[in-house]
Amino acid sequence: MSLATKSRARRITSVLAAAVAALMLAGCGASNNSATSSTPTTVDGSLNKIVYKGDASKSPAKANQRDDTFVTTIGTPSGVFLPYFQDNGWDGNATQPIFNSLVVVDNSGNVKPDLAEKWDISSDGLTYTYHLRKGLKFSDGSPLTAKDVAFTLTLLNDPAYSGGADFTNIGIKGVDEYKNGNAKSISGIKVVDDQTITIETTKVNPLALQTLGGSVLSKAYYGKDYKKGKLDYLKDLYSKPMGDGPYQLSKYVDGQEIRYKANKYYYGGKPKIENLIFKVTSKDTALANFQNGETDDDSFTPDQDNLDQLKSFGFATIRESTVPDISEIWLNNKNDILKDKKVRQALVYGLDRQQIVDVQLKGFGQVANVYAAPTQWSYTEKGVPTYKYNADKAKKLLDEAGWREGSDGIRVKDGKKLTLRYLTSKSDDPVVPIATENYKAIGVNFQPEVLDGDTIIQRWTQGGDWDMVGGFRTNGLVDPDDAINEFYSTNTSVNLTGYDNAEVTKLAKEGIATQDKDKRKEIYAELYKKLGEDVPTILVSYRQSLSAWNARIKNAEDFSTGSGDSSQALAKLEITK
């Protein structure tokens, strides 16, 4: 799946859907002194580190009965099986087996061929030519051609489209004229022949290749009722996908499972495993389900006990990976209190993030200081403030910001108390007890509110009725822009913090205005320092994941649900019989 099939904005995924569940912090308080209370751990930037190889002969009987079915797991999809029109990250994962892209991006940020076997980029970096594989077909046997690619890009630039695909920083030539009604088609999109399409852009952007090269929708199927400015008809097709991937949807049971059948028209050949099941499970039952053979592949809460148990099964091949995401506490930068940089800096100094990481990730995580994951080529901590827990520094900053301690210990400024509301969807969010005690010690009245995810999203994205939001992680980060693009966006549905800094915007736009990787590294190194000083959000953690699969499944080391090239990896799985 191309990055374009996700939002180009840094979408957020609830910690309920993350691989790591927060653990209850009963009676666990933070120290009030300036010293760091815990020992830091280090997250290795390597991916797919096999720590134990399983023995297929020890596979449980229940799993062995499935000689034509692979069962993996998923969180809570909502049943929208149409790329570009999804708000739930799990829907994106559930759609990956059904739709291929022109190109895909692996977890290291490398672009790989998919439906397009090759591509050309003009010398000025503005025109992209994709050469499709010969004989491509959709799952109904109809041909997939460059006309379908043109239809897809036209649909995504329809004036009525409001989904996650964003071509603003690429600038397809002729889009504005098309949207304004001054042109019947987009002049920058040209079908050369059935296997070739060129797209002319107006802005140099290193992300354009993958952004333009996303999932392809059938014009005959998704476009038969298309009328410019009217896209509601597509809602009837959300549950009836017709794609070109290795599998096609067979059955969706809300809250239980998604079943797929192998697609005989898949360009790579029909997958050797006939049936695929995404089973909706919880972390509470993950180990038991895997041990008794209910599932073939899953992720587990990373801790030493789970690692030891998985090894004891004998049949599990176990992988530890660095997850390319970041846990953050979002701050409302338009808030009268939080718009002051010194207050934001004080909140980072005054929070024992290491203790949060220790309790939540139990040795499988690290305090985050950079707006990049350790897996990313741009990652560097050089010159970036680390904000090691220091209550004294936090107090000094609040003093400088004009917040004075009141008679009850809570700071006051202009007759207003320093009260901050923290929204979370987890009743056992480890931030709550630690921040409550830490912030009380520096004179902040920290008020947690535990709400359902939908309510949080509504308050977060509408009207600004929030101060701090926690319990969320970024989606998977590949390109450096993924983690920071919200901070220079003028779209309020993207820039949820309301952060605005001209210097950051300038650097961020420079970062996507060149194809030179070394130059981009220099730009992002400066950008990380500036964002570190400004603190638009509170960075909390990087994490390791712990996953395992039944050793009877061959080639599973390349598969990871949600990775950019997961559909290609799925197609290569085999069952040892």
UniProtKB/TrEMBL annotation:
The keyword Zinc does not apply. Residues 110-492 form the Solute-binding protein family domain. GO terms for molecular function: peptide transmembrane transporter activity. GO terms for biological process: peptide transport. The keyword Signal applies. GO terms for cellular component: ATP-binding cassette (ABC) transporter complex; periplasmic space. Keywords: Signal. Pfam families: SBP_bac_5. It is a lipid-anchor. It is found in: Cell membrane. Residues 1-30 form the signal peptide. InterPro entries: Peptide/Ni-bd, SBP_5, SBP_5_CS, SBP_5_dom. It comes from the Bacteria. PANTHER family: OLIGOPEPTIDE-BINDING PROTEIN OPPA, PERIPLASMIC BINDING COMPONENT OF ABC TRANSPORTER. Belongs to the bacterial solute-binding protein 5 family. This is ABC transporter substrate-binding protein. It comes from Bifidobacterium leontopitheci.
